[in-house]
Amino acid sequence: MPFIPHTEKDTLEMLAAIGVDSIEDLFDEIPAELRIDQLRAVPEAHNEMEVSRFMRDRAAMDGTPLCFIGAGAYEHHIPAAVWDIATRGEFYSAYTPYQAEASQGTLQTIYEYQTMITGLTGLDVSNASLYDGASALAEAALMSVRSNRRVKTGRVLLAPGVNPVYEQVAVAIAGSQGLTFERLPSDPTSGNVAFDQLDDGQDPVAVVIQQPSFPGTLEDVERLTDWAHAEGAVVVAIVNPIALALLKAPGHWGEQGADIAIGEGQPLGVPLSSGGPYFGFMTCKQKHVRQMPGRIVGRTTDLDGNPGFTLTLQAREQHIRRTKATSNICTNQGLMVTAATIYMSLLGFAGLVRVAESSHANTTRLVEGLCTIKGVRRLYEGPYFHEVALQLDCAVAPVLAALADQNILGGFDVSTFAGCNALLVCATETKTTSDIDKTISAFADAMA
Amino acid sequence: MSELPGDLLYTNDHEWLRREDDGSVTIGITDHAASSLGDLVYVELPEVGQDVESGGEMAVVESVKAASDVYAPIAGSVAAVNEGLADDPEKINAEPYDEGWIVRMQPSGDIDESELMSPDAYQQLLDDLDD
Lengths: 448, 131
Prior knowledge:
The complex is a heterodimer. Chain A is α/β, with parallel strands linked by helices. Chain A folds into two domains: 82-341, 3-Layer(aba) Sandwich (Aspartate Aminotransferase, domain 2); 349-447, Aspartate Aminotransferase, domain 1, CATH 3.90.1150. Chain A has helices at 8-18, 48-62, 80-86, 104-121, 133-147, 164-174, 221-230, 318-321, 334-370, 396-405, 415-418, 433-447, and strands spanning 66-67, 125-126, 155-158, 180-183, 206-211, 234-239, 260-264, 280-284, 297-301, 307-311, 376-378, 387-392, 408-409, 412-413, 422-426. In chain A, strands 2-8-7-6-5-3-4 form a seven-stranded mixed sheet, with helices on both faces. A four-stranded antiparallel sheet of chain A has the order 11-12-15-14. A two-stranded parallel sheet of chain A has the order 1-13. Chain A is globular and about 75 Å long. Chain B has one domain: CATH 2.40.50.100. Chain B is 18% helix and 32% strand. In chain B, the strands form two sheets. A six-stranded antiparallel sheet of chain B has the order 1-2-3-9-8-5. The longest helix of chain B has 12 residues, at 119-130. Chain B starts with 8 loop residues before the first strand and ends with a helix. Chains A and B meet through loops of A and strand 4 and strand 6 of B.
């Protein structure tokens, strides 16, 4: 569907219709002291040739390092067909158009995406996506408050393994809306929740459980989910979609299952791209759907009885509810979702399982090799998926710098998070045994 | 438009009130409001026991294309809610003044009827809207 902006004539006619002289006058009500007359630090315009060259040079600076960094974004093989199809003219849009009559293909793609994501998470309904995994946590917390009206505390309890960056983003978005985020006590051996130290009766509105955890451990999600429900909380699961090929779907955690599942969709066919664009996913139980933010595509029948697709439950959204809308999230990440849908379609569930198993096997080879090096050990005991926290006897930064000199991104420094010399390592299916063995050897040299 | 029940009081927000014998007040939206919204698909009800101020938001009625707040016409607490609306919100369209009631409130003080409208006054409001 082409996007045709209004012409200068249109603009003038619209301004005349409302009796305003210029677009600038529309902003009159913003006090002068709050306005920035010109954007500082924005350079002069460059032509296309200059911009292309600049971007090429910048892109080349990334090089093609061997990457063992995960920590929330993961390098997976993306079949060439994914972006070939996603960038076809029919799909190449960031938006979900409102007009069902003009966008059946896009709407069906999103509907198929929703079906796949609900299948992976074991929950009833999915929205059409959110911005990313971190902002999805903020949305899930706000959604929990709307859904769990009995609880007035605004207290959101985070399992120890919730990504600290997600917490920062959630505090930035929801912290000024009466929500507080607190950590549950952690067990120093497992890195997971210390069940014997849990305080009952805190009246949490939501409990957030990340599986696998940020430092790569596997939480006892069954027990924690049941505890949270007994405390009257909505259970929010943060999950990695690739891991769901092997791990239990959050919709089946504990006796009742998690209420809301969110996560970062990037591993499903979206390249690392120096940090974005990515997309967040969100699914929930049917009973929470009215409080869910974002677009939802539904399947329906037209007047002739033919199947068709349309946006549904729109009365929650800003164009109808205005200030009372459940959120202002649209579907700017539509293109990423299209790629993810094609990725999942091409791989199928069996393909996702192979990716997950191969990533686990590669990480095991890497971690077992690294742990033979003197001064390297696992920070936490217990099973893991495709990421593991290691503790070093020496500072992490110099080791990573030495590896970087050999074009290896050796891991993510989590010393601040862990309170000791620690890094996260991850080896997905993209790494060969020779990549891994070379890295172990380089790591040993760097530690020597 | 059907006849307005004569035993009810009305508000500018197209809500109605019935003063019950036990001192409680039953509240719903008028036939005009329900028809304007279209077929209702969802009603968000308050919790029983919740205190509400006069003019405060109490419930939300939602149709396929619109959603509207239901305001408390008086101050008090929520004594009962029409649970049946959860499964059958269209009751409000079908029988707005009977089975389609939304909330029953226990007033916290005397009800100032001068703040409310008689059936005739509300009919006049509707007639003015048509003009």
